[in-house]
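Example with several molecule types.
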Amino acid sequence: MKAFRLERQLDLDPRRAALYRILGALCALLLGALVLVATGRNPVWILGQAIDAIFSRQRGIEGVALRATPILMTALSVALCLRLRIWNIGAGGQFLAGAFAAVGVGINLDAPGWVVLFAMAAAGTLAGAAWILVPALARAYWGVNEIITTLLLNFVAVQLAAWAALGFWRDEEAFAIQSTKSIEDTLPGIPGTESLSIALFFPLVIAGVLWWVFRSTRAGYEIDMIGGNPKAAAFAGINVPRRMVAVMLVTGAIAGLGGMIQLAGSPGAQQLNAGFGAQYGLSGFIVATIAAGSFLGLVVAGFLIAAMFFAGLILQTRGLSVYIILALYGIILIGVAVGEIAARFRLVRADLDIAPPESP
Amino acid sequence: MIFALVESALLSLVKVAIPASTVVVLAALGVMLSERVGVLNLGQEGLIGIGAVYAVIAATEWGVTSPWVSMLVGIIAAALAGAIFAVVVVVFRANQVLAGLAMAIGGIGLSNQLGTNRNGTPVTTLFSEVNPGGKFTSNAVLETFLFHDPVVYIAYIVLPAAFWFLLFRTRHGMNMRAVGENPAAADAAGVSVLWARFGYTVAGSALAGAGGAYMVLSFTPTWAPDIARGRGWVALAVVIFGAWRPFRVVAGALLYGAMISLGMTAQARNWNLPFLGPRDLSFFLSMIPYLVTIVAILIPAGAARFGRRIRSTSAPGGLAVPYSREER
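Resulting structure tokens for the full complex:
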């Protein structure tokens, strides 16, 4: 008698893992479409509207690129940390801390434009790194779970941004909008586009550099080794805690720089308020987990999620709420999480008459 | 004289803080249950939203007149959502962080979507406060503690006491803790890791739903988008602060509530401290619960590093680690 049975795979082919993740997300989307049909909406029409919104005009494509930039920055931050098997759930907070420091420099420093921009970038990078310093030290030297500490600091960052917007850096002239004063100097635009600035190149360059670091440098190899087995890495002579702190500080710095380039490079985002970049931390997290360690896959996933975001905004004006998009996000993430596990199993047809091998 | 003044200020603070923290207490006790068996459920924010929106739907559209029944509807809805999460992380053994964030995002989206046409609809079938009689109003202390909803007493006294007894005085509770600390050992001893984790994840989600339902049936009392407003994340923090012990968790939630109400009091009474205006003070105070929690996590870890053992405040050993018998 033959029967189907799930068999566990001992080693996991990364391509197979990626395929199953994508399959999981697609199945989830299909499920979401069914829910939409069940509630009396037409998913094909929605998809058509979304594609139309993105590709029919130049503004659509630019809109996606504009939203992809901050998402990619936080995603890179999370993804780099994941190489160590460490969860940086605080990328959103580091992003805000970077924007906070950058706006502080931008509205208070009186200097030529490029000097101000460089100072802002430096401040944002340092602030992002500073925001993860305590979780990094605690994790590396005391073994304190980083999920909780980085998560908690997000809320502190939101409070700090709200404080700045309503308190000490408040724009007194604007009555309706509660935000800080605006910065004057912005990043140069990309010629031939309406709204894009050189901010777009930051995540692309960083993704390229990280890809190279992990492909062909000793540092990248050592980081992967720590991620694989910290004890073995320590035995091989790597100073694990020090490396860990260094990498985590870099992840904070990337997210912090993301906050700065969002502030100085995205049209209409030149002041800080409590809602600044609220969704980028979570989106970056989603992108990083879908990409699962591949920096080039991350760029693709980042643009995909940004396209969903943008389509959501456009669909809102055409009668669909942004909340449905959020609910779909949740379903997709569940699909990815299940796909991740499904990749480890294989359906085999086996003869039940043969007794399974005795375990030693 | 000054003592009486401080006392009255403190009491009015507590009087505001108690109902304000009830949502956090309920959700945090649920988080504690599921974390005690080793499941990290980051989806609290979404579960609170789901509990709240279904309670609102029951109370305003289905014509449910009893707040208890409306709350039950919210609890069941959140428990169902929690069951989906439990299937994904306990049965399929998916990544708990990822699935938990999915629950948070998806739950917020779903509840906001369901609540779209119900923004600002007042809920009229509310919990009424316990009234032990007029003679207690004369005493300020008794008045502070005795005139709240019955849910408040369930959240602050009945549930933590029951959970304390369950966890530390019953064999079942010992098994629960074993599942959370070392699932392989518990499995070897004949405890079903799967059922313990599944059951308490669903139970924990139900408590978050109760918290959400309480919000709309007593505290706000109306639906508003993003109803949890970060309370779900606070609940997760409070459990760490409370070292996974029921009454300490409640104390942590009260600390959070006290800081928030102190901030509101500062704004209402226009307190001016050197360098800190009333508004600044309230922002600063709202950061404190998070910072205190971080410090509370760091102290025992640091003490252990320097060779001193503080009574265990660390997380259950198997927290957020999927358990599968084959990988033992």
